[in-house]
Amino acid sequence: MSQWSQVQQLEIKFLEQVDQFYDDNFPMEIRHLLAQWIESQDWEAAANNEAMAMILLQNLIIQVDEQLDRVSQEKNLLLIHNLKRVRKLLQGKYHGNPMHIAVIISNCLREERRILAAASMPVQGPLEKSLQNSVVSERQRNVEHKVSAIKNSAQMTDQDVKYLEDLQEEFDFRYKTIQSLEQNDKNSALIKQEMLALQAMLNTLDYKRKEVLSKIGRVIHEIDMLMSNMLTEELLDWKRRQQIACIGGPLHGGLDQLQNCFTLLAESLFQVRRQLEKLDELLTRLTYDGDPIPVQRPQLLEKVNFLLYNLFRNSFVVERQPCMPTHPQRPMVLKTLIQFTVKLRLLIKLPELNYQIRVKATIDNNRRFVLCGTHVKAMNMDESANGSLSVEFRHLQPKEMKTSAGSKGNEGPHMVTEELHSISFETQVCLYGLTINLETSSLPVVMISNVSQLPNAWASIIWYNLSTNDPQNLSFFNNPPAATLSQLLEVLSWQFSSYVGRGLNSEQLNMLAEKLMGQQVSYNDYQLSWAKFCKEHLPGKSFTFWVWLEAILDLIKKHILPLWIDGYVMGFVSKEKERILLKDKTPGTFLLRFSESNLGGITFTWVDQLENGEVTFHSVEPYNKGRLSALPFADILRDYKVIMADNVPENPLKYLYPDIPKDKAFGKHYSCQPDEVSKPSDGGGKGYVPSVFIPVSKILNDSTEPHSPSDLLPMSPSVYAVLREHLSPTAIETAVSCKLSHS
Fold first, then answer.
1. SS3 of 627, please?
2. What single string gives the DSSP state of each residue in 195-208?
3. Which helix (H) or strand (E) holds 439?
């Protein structure tokens, strides 16, 4: 079943999450129509390779054209219209930056996998639950409603100012008309009556001036209250969601909604500013004793300018945190002399600012590192698919400065992976007579000089963003706080769902909790130290918990990914637990688990039954990435043979726990089917008989543990079949034993 088919079968609450990240950047119609093709492409690799991304973009357009031809024949007018729109989008938006569409599709597929993993979890984790708080959603709706109401109020006040202007012009005309009359004419009864009318008009003008100023004051107060409370909270929540997304959590949305709110508020404030300017203009043409404009206008204008300054300062955000394109799922870890990307956005989207704001990028002020590459760029609305006012730096790279002695500071394998740095950005906005200096910074980053430091650096990023919402605590690791174990386990599950497409279930998480804290822990409120997580060796081992877990992630990603995604690798289960699970199962039932003593190792254990009814268990020596590079793990499970005493070698693996026939579980992952293996009579290249590696282990009578699976005999299945026809089991055993004794 395709990933998209699984998504469509989710409950409505999960489908709503899927709906959030499909928009005009990558329409859901294309995801639906091209599901199989999209899932068969390597978008993650294309996100870091422009040539590959361009080829995939061209092929995507070809696929859209084929769908367009099909629906044209079916005369589906709505779908024809949508596909033409999508084709125009793909050609227009992404032709100059094909890697952008690759990043978008890769992120969408990754988020689908995360949601599928979350749907399979029995309960939602505490962090994810807090991010989807109903109170937060209600506040978002309230903010949007209040912003809309403020915009309407500002527009209504515009009409009041226009009425006031018309009334004053009429008063001015009638007053000047009387002033132009001769003195004798001014004493007439008609003129006296007109003077009384003018006095009434002046009273009305005074009332209307006070009314307009009062309405302007209310609009300013409403904006002030909204900015000080709900809008600030919304922005802080978005930044927290971004932190969580950076360490594998749910993709954060809401920035477009925030941009809409910030932009409408800025437009309202500039509208109020123009209204105050109009009042100043009216003041120069007419004033009187008790005139409210010269008293109230300066204070209101000062407040408007203050709010504009704060609004602009808060609107300058890092939309996408620093990340090396070579490691898209390890943001905020930067390697010296390797390019990274970072994207900034101004949430106030005004056409007057397009290409008018130049942003400068720098690194923190300790003078240990400098940024090389293009570090000054102009914000514009053309590069982003959604037309936001943003700038993306794609060619920055950190360089470590030489010390006064001529040698580099900590460059090399001993660079401290707990040392935090910050990428800072500054710019200046000049608009309508205002000059506003803006500054913002990335979340803390860790510098490395060698990829071998990446695992520990990533552990630092995880711990920081899990433990604090402070965006700039660069001294955090001077005294790192403990983390709640339940939240840490949730984040560890995210590492698997985001990096290898399937998260961890409660049983797997329980095993990790026991690994960290000991047997039978209740980890709801348990506090775990940073040292326990990443610095102290596991009991009796030469490595830390995090190094062990990272090696497993690497093993899955490179060697057993399809098996992991299908859910056939139990993985995290102790030796004691596996025996409890297998003891009552049919002989030949096996399960797959990760080694607790070998870094990046996977083994399998099967249950057997002796003639006297005694249940026995056999575990093969773990396979590591070296062995799995030579032979796919699915093929190992298919071809594995065991020699026990005088018996003929046979495959003991029959059923994957609990009772799935082995070939049903792994058949689609075999490199070739058994009947596709060449026979000796078929011949091989240049007259050679094709051969395959067959993993064989020998179990002695007094042992339940097979010999090392590294003894892979280069023997074709057909040759092995011939040997079985012509040689006795004893002879075969003698030959294998001879092989083992000389290995």
1. helix
2. HHHHHHHHHHHHHH
3. strand 434-441
- Report pLDDT digits (tens) over 114-172: 777 767 665 556 677 666 655 566 777 888 899 999 999 999 999 999 999 999 999 88
User: What is the dotted CATH code of the domain comprising 506-669?
Assistant: 3.30.505.10
Band the pLDDT of 677: cuts 50, 70, 90.
very low
For the residues 343-358, what does the mean pLDDT come to?
Answer: 93
Distance, CA of 390 to CA of 345 (rounded, Å): 4
Q: Are 64 and 79 in contact (CB under 8 A)?
A: no
Q: Is 308 exposed, middle or buried (0-12, 13-18, 19+ CB in 10 A)?
A: buried
* pLDDT recorded at residue 125: 66
CA distance 210 to 291: 9
d(CA 251, CA 498): 10
Please state whether the predicted TM-score (pTM) of the whole model is above 0.90: no
Residue 425 bridge partners (DSSP) = 361, 440
Let me know: does 50 contact 100? Beta carbons within 8 Å. no
The reply to whether 3-120 and 506-669 are identical in fold is no
Q: What is the pLDDT of residues 611-626, one digit of tens each?
A: 788 888 988 889 998 8
The closest of 548, 528, 466 to 240, measured between CA atoms, is 466
* Angle, in degrees to the nearest 10, between helices 255-285 and 134-179: 20
List, in sequence order, the alpha helices (H) in 121-188. 126-131, 134-179, 183-186
Contacts for 719 with CB less than 8 Å, ≥ 6 apart: 680, 689, 691
Nearest to 546 by CA among 599, 585, 608: 599
Written as six digits, the tokens of 418 are 């707990």
Other Cβ atoms closer than 10 A to 106? 21
Which H or E run contains 323?
A: strand 316-323
Q: Which residues of 38-59 are buried (b: 16+ CB within 10 A; e: fewer)?
A: beebebbebbbbeebbbebbee
Q: How far apart are CA 273 and CA 300, in angstroms?
A: 9
The CATH H-level superfamily of 134-313 is STAT transcription factor, all-alpha domain (1.20.1050.20)
Instruction: Compute, in degrees rounded to 10, the torsion defined by CA atoms 115, 119, 122, 128.
Output: 30
pLDDT > 80? residue 16: no
In terms of DSSP bridges, do strands 340-346 and 376-378 run parallel, antiparallel, or are they unpaired? unpaired
Say which DSSP state 558 is in. I
447 contacts 421 by C-beta, under 8 angstroms = yes
**Contact indicator for 449, 417 with CB cutoff of 8 Å:** no
Q: Domain 324-401+416-449 has what CATH class?
A: mainly beta
User: What is the pLDDT confidence band of residue 491, given thresholds at 50, 70 and 90?
Assistant: very high
Element (H, E) at 80: helix 77-94
Structure tokens at 101: 């569409």
| Spatial CA neighbour of 226 closest among 305, 306, 134, 144 | 144
Q: Report which of 43, 14, 9 is spatially closest to residue 26, judged by C-alpha positions.
A: 43
Q: Which pLDDT tens digit goes with each residue over 559-610?
A: 998 899 888 999 898 888 889 999 889 999 999 999 998 899 999 999 988 8
Q: What is the pLDDT of residue 182?
A: 62
Residue 715's Cβ-side half-sphere holds a number of Cα atoms within 13 Å equal to 21
SS3 category, 106: helix
Query: Under DSSP, is residue 603 helix (H, G, I), strand (E, B) or coil?
Result: strand
Segment 461-482 mean pLDDT: 93
Beta carbons within 10 angstroms of residue 182's beta carbon? 7
For the chain, which residues make up each domain, given as ranges? Answer: 3-120, 134-313, 324-401+416-449, 506-669
Query: 266-303 pLDDT, tens per residue?
Result: 999 999 999 999 999 999 999 999 999 999 999 999 99
- CATH hierarchy code of domain 3-120: 1.10.532.10
